[in-house]
Amino acid sequence: MDLSKEFTKDKTFIWWLFSSCISTIEVIKHFLGDKGPRTIINVETCSAKDISRHSFHTTENEILLYPARQLKVISSIDFGSQLHIVQLQEVQPLFSLIHIPQAGQAISPLTFISSINSTYINPELKQLIEQYQSNSKITLTGQRLTDQNMYIVVKEALVSKKFEELWIARQPDNFRRCQNFGCEGLSKNTTLKMLTIDQDHLHNGGIQYLASALSRTNNTLESLALERTELTDNGIEYLSEMLKMNRHMKV
Fold first, then answer.
1. Which one of 63, 101, 228, 238 has the largest count of C-beta atoms within 10 Å of its C-beta?
2. Which InterPro entries match (predicted)?
Protein backbone atom coordinates (compact mmCIF):
# COMPACT_ATOMS: atom_id res chain seq x y z
CA MET A 1 0.00 0.00 0.00
CA ASP A 2 1.28 3.48 -0.89
CA LEU A 3 1.04 5.62 2.27
CA SER A 4 3.53 8.28 1.18
CA LYS A 5 0.87 10.93 0.50
CA GLU A 6 -0.10 10.88 4.18
CA PHE A 7 3.46 11.84 5.22
CA THR A 8 4.42 15.19 3.72
CA LYS A 9 7.83 16.62 4.62
CA ASP A 10 7.97 18.54 7.96
CA LYS A 11 4.48 17.38 8.96
CA THR A 12 4.17 16.86 12.73
CA PHE A 13 1.51 14.55 14.16
CA ILE A 14 0.67 12.28 17.11
CA TRP A 15 1.04 8.51 16.66
CA TRP A 16 -1.69 7.24 18.99
CA LEU A 17 -1.39 3.44 18.77
CA PHE A 18 0.86 0.77 20.24
CA SER A 19 2.74 -0.44 17.15
CA SER A 20 4.76 -3.56 16.49
CA CYS A 21 7.99 -2.75 14.66
CA ILE A 22 11.12 -4.61 13.60
CA SER A 23 14.74 -3.56 13.89
CA THR A 24 16.41 -5.29 10.93
CA ILE A 25 15.92 -4.85 7.20
CA GLU A 26 16.15 -8.59 6.53
CA VAL A 27 12.86 -9.25 8.31
CA ILE A 28 11.07 -6.59 6.24
CA LYS A 29 11.48 -8.61 3.05
CA HIS A 30 9.16 -11.29 4.42
CA PHE A 31 6.31 -8.78 4.82
CA LEU A 32 7.11 -6.39 1.98
CA GLY A 33 7.26 -8.58 -1.09
CA ASP A 34 8.86 -7.40 -4.33
CA LYS A 35 5.97 -5.93 -6.31
CA GLY A 36 2.90 -3.74 -5.94
CA PRO A 37 2.52 -0.48 -3.93
CA ARG A 38 4.63 -0.74 -0.76
CA THR A 39 5.67 1.64 2.02
CA ILE A 40 8.45 1.27 4.59
CA ILE A 41 8.12 3.59 7.60
CA ASN A 42 11.39 4.18 9.42
CA VAL A 43 10.96 5.66 12.92
CA GLU A 44 13.79 7.21 14.93
CA THR A 45 12.58 7.14 18.54
CA CYS A 46 13.66 6.83 22.15
CA SER A 47 10.22 5.55 23.22
CA ALA A 48 10.30 1.93 22.10
CA LYS A 49 10.95 -1.34 23.93
CA ASP A 50 12.65 -4.49 22.71
CA ILE A 51 10.11 -7.28 23.32
CA SER A 52 11.80 -9.97 21.22
CA ARG A 53 12.37 -12.18 24.29
CA HIS A 54 8.62 -12.24 24.96
CA SER A 55 7.31 -12.42 21.40
CA PHE A 56 5.91 -15.55 19.77
CA HIS A 57 7.94 -14.52 16.69
CA THR A 58 11.40 -14.66 18.25
CA THR A 59 13.27 -14.29 14.94
CA GLU A 60 11.64 -10.98 14.00
CA ASN A 61 13.54 -8.77 16.49
CA GLU A 62 10.23 -7.23 17.49
CA ILE A 63 10.15 -3.71 18.95
CA LEU A 64 7.07 -2.16 20.57
CA LEU A 65 6.52 1.54 19.89
CA TYR A 66 4.68 3.32 22.69
CA PRO A 67 1.47 5.21 21.83
CA ALA A 68 0.92 8.98 21.99
CA ARG A 69 4.31 9.79 20.42
CA GLN A 70 4.78 13.06 18.56
CA LEU A 71 6.54 12.40 15.26
CA LYS A 72 7.88 14.60 12.48
CA VAL A 73 8.26 13.63 8.83
CA ILE A 74 11.93 14.05 7.88
CA SER A 75 11.66 12.74 4.34
CA SER A 76 9.49 10.70 1.99
CA ILE A 77 11.25 9.10 -0.97
CA ASP A 78 10.02 7.23 -4.04
CA PHE A 79 12.54 4.43 -4.69
CA GLY A 80 10.82 3.26 -7.86
CA SER A 81 9.09 -0.07 -8.50
CA GLN A 82 6.19 1.30 -6.39
CA LEU A 83 8.34 1.29 -3.23
CA HIS A 84 8.23 4.33 -0.91
CA ILE A 85 10.26 4.93 2.26
CA VAL A 86 9.08 7.42 4.88
CA GLN A 87 11.50 8.65 7.56
CA LEU A 88 9.98 9.80 10.87
CA GLN A 89 11.66 11.26 13.93
CA GLU A 90 10.24 11.56 17.43
CA VAL A 91 10.06 15.12 18.76
CA GLN A 92 9.14 16.23 22.25
CA PRO A 93 5.64 17.73 22.61
CA LEU A 94 4.93 20.83 24.68
CA PHE A 95 3.57 18.59 27.43
CA SER A 96 3.78 14.86 28.10
CA LEU A 97 0.83 12.87 26.73
CA ILE A 98 1.54 9.67 28.67
CA HIS A 99 4.14 8.48 31.16
CA ILE A 100 6.83 6.21 29.69
CA PRO A 101 8.47 3.77 32.18
CA GLN A 102 12.20 4.28 32.44
CA ALA A 103 14.48 1.38 31.52
CA GLY A 104 16.09 -0.31 34.49
CA GLN A 105 13.37 0.53 36.99
CA ALA A 106 12.98 -2.59 39.06
CA ILE A 107 9.85 -3.71 40.83
CA SER A 108 10.27 -2.98 44.50
CA PRO A 109 10.38 -6.18 46.54
CA LEU A 110 7.04 -6.71 48.22
CA THR A 111 6.25 -8.46 51.44
CA PHE A 112 3.02 -10.39 51.19
CA ILE A 113 0.70 -9.44 54.03
CA SER A 114 -0.01 -12.69 55.81
CA SER A 115 -3.54 -12.33 57.12
CA ILE A 116 -4.47 -15.86 56.07
CA ASN A 117 -6.12 -18.18 58.56
CA SER A 118 -5.19 -21.68 57.39
CA THR A 119 -8.18 -23.15 59.27
CA TYR A 120 -10.67 -21.00 57.32
CA ILE A 121 -13.28 -23.08 55.43
CA ASN A 122 -15.58 -22.13 52.56
CA PRO A 123 -17.59 -25.29 51.76
CA GLU A 124 -19.37 -23.77 48.73
CA LEU A 125 -16.12 -22.70 47.07
CA LYS A 126 -14.41 -26.00 47.81
CA GLN A 127 -17.40 -27.93 46.42
CA LEU A 128 -17.38 -25.81 43.27
CA ILE A 129 -13.70 -26.53 42.67
CA GLU A 130 -14.23 -30.26 43.23
CA GLN A 131 -16.75 -30.35 40.36
CA TYR A 132 -14.00 -29.66 37.83
CA GLN A 133 -11.70 -32.34 36.48
CA SER A 134 -8.02 -32.18 37.35
CA ASN A 135 -5.59 -30.62 34.85
CA SER A 136 -8.40 -28.65 33.21
CA LYS A 137 -9.82 -25.10 33.17
CA ILE A 138 -11.76 -23.57 36.06
CA THR A 139 -13.93 -20.45 35.88
CA LEU A 140 -14.80 -18.50 39.03
CA THR A 141 -17.51 -15.89 38.44
CA GLY A 142 -19.16 -13.82 41.15
CA GLN A 143 -17.73 -15.55 44.24
CA ARG A 144 -16.45 -13.39 47.10
CA LEU A 145 -12.77 -14.01 46.47
CA THR A 146 -11.10 -12.40 49.47
CA ASP A 147 -7.56 -13.27 50.56
CA GLN A 148 -8.97 -16.16 52.58
CA ASN A 149 -10.85 -17.51 49.57
CA MET A 150 -7.87 -17.08 47.25
CA TYR A 151 -5.90 -19.22 49.70
CA ILE A 152 -8.49 -21.96 49.12
CA VAL A 153 -8.30 -21.48 45.34
CA VAL A 154 -4.52 -21.87 45.42
CA LYS A 155 -4.62 -24.87 47.75
CA GLU A 156 -7.49 -26.76 46.11
CA ALA A 157 -7.29 -25.67 42.46
CA LEU A 158 -3.56 -25.20 41.85
CA VAL A 159 -1.97 -27.58 44.34
CA SER A 160 -4.50 -30.40 44.70
CA LYS A 161 -6.22 -30.51 41.30
CA LYS A 162 -3.39 -28.94 39.28
CA PHE A 163 -5.57 -26.81 37.01
CA GLU A 164 -3.84 -25.48 33.90
CA GLU A 165 -6.21 -22.54 33.26
CA LEU A 166 -7.84 -20.20 35.79
CA TRP A 167 -10.46 -17.60 34.82
CA ILE A 168 -11.58 -15.11 37.48
CA ALA A 169 -14.43 -12.79 36.47
CA ARG A 170 -16.94 -10.27 37.84
CA GLN A 171 -15.93 -10.26 41.48
CA PRO A 172 -17.33 -7.70 43.99
CA ASP A 173 -15.52 -4.51 44.95
CA ASN A 174 -13.51 -6.14 47.74
CA PHE A 175 -11.62 -8.20 45.14
CA ARG A 176 -10.12 -5.00 43.70
CA ARG A 177 -8.36 -4.39 46.99
CA CYS A 178 -7.34 -8.01 47.57
CA GLN A 179 -3.61 -7.45 48.05
CA ASN A 180 -2.42 -11.00 48.53
CA PHE A 181 -4.30 -11.92 45.37
CA GLY A 182 -3.26 -15.52 45.81
CA CYS A 183 0.19 -14.39 44.72
CA GLU A 184 2.19 -16.46 47.17
CA GLY A 185 0.62 -19.49 45.56
CA LEU A 186 1.18 -18.16 42.03
CA SER A 187 4.87 -17.59 42.66
CA LYS A 188 5.22 -21.27 43.61
CA ASN A 189 2.84 -22.56 40.93
CA THR A 190 3.97 -25.59 38.91
CA THR A 191 0.90 -26.33 36.74
CA LEU A 192 -1.05 -23.18 35.84
CA LYS A 193 -0.34 -22.11 32.25
CA MET A 194 -3.01 -19.46 31.65
CA LEU A 195 -4.47 -16.88 34.06
CA THR A 196 -7.31 -14.58 33.00
CA ILE A 197 -8.69 -11.84 35.25
CA ASP A 198 -11.81 -10.10 33.96
CA GLN A 199 -12.45 -7.39 36.53
CA ASP A 200 -13.46 -3.73 36.36
CA HIS A 201 -11.00 -1.21 37.85
CA LEU A 202 -8.50 -3.67 39.29
CA HIS A 203 -6.63 -1.91 42.09
CA ASN A 204 -2.99 -0.93 41.49
CA GLY A 205 -2.03 -2.75 44.68
CA GLY A 206 -3.34 -6.02 43.25
CA ILE A 207 -1.43 -5.48 40.00
CA GLN A 208 1.77 -4.71 41.91
CA TYR A 209 1.50 -7.83 44.03
CA LEU A 210 0.66 -9.92 40.97
CA ALA A 211 3.65 -8.56 39.03
CA SER A 212 5.95 -9.07 41.99
CA ALA A 213 4.81 -12.68 42.41
CA LEU A 214 5.28 -13.50 38.73
CA SER A 215 8.76 -11.95 38.80
CA ARG A 216 9.85 -14.66 41.19
CA THR A 217 10.92 -17.27 38.65
CA ASN A 218 7.50 -18.62 37.74
CA ASN A 219 8.43 -21.13 35.03
CA THR A 220 4.96 -22.48 34.26
CA LEU A 221 2.58 -19.57 33.58
CA GLU A 222 2.70 -18.79 29.86
CA SER A 223 -0.17 -16.36 29.41
CA LEU A 224 -1.61 -13.56 31.55
CA ALA A 225 -4.78 -11.83 30.29
CA LEU A 226 -6.22 -8.78 32.05
CA GLU A 227 -9.61 -7.81 30.65
CA ARG A 228 -11.60 -4.66 31.51
CA THR A 229 -9.13 -3.87 34.29
CA GLU A 230 -8.52 -0.28 33.09
CA LEU A 231 -4.80 -0.42 33.84
CA THR A 232 -3.14 2.80 34.94
CA ASP A 233 0.35 3.89 33.87
CA ASN A 234 1.70 2.47 37.14
CA GLY A 235 0.01 -0.86 36.51
CA ILE A 236 1.52 -1.07 33.02
CA GLU A 237 4.94 -0.23 34.47
CA TYR A 238 4.68 -3.03 37.06
CA LEU A 239 3.82 -5.57 34.36
CA SER A 240 6.55 -4.32 31.99
CA GLU A 241 9.21 -4.78 34.64
CA MET A 242 7.83 -8.22 35.49
CA LEU A 243 8.28 -9.32 31.87
CA LYS A 244 11.94 -8.33 31.99
CA MET A 245 12.48 -10.76 34.86
CA ASN A 246 10.11 -13.54 33.82
CA ARG A 247 11.44 -14.60 30.41
CA HIS A 248 9.19 -17.65 30.22
CA MET A 249 5.99 -15.69 29.67
CA LYS A 250 4.90 -14.78 26.15
CA VAL A 251 2.74 -11.75 25.32
1. 238
2. LRR_dom_sf
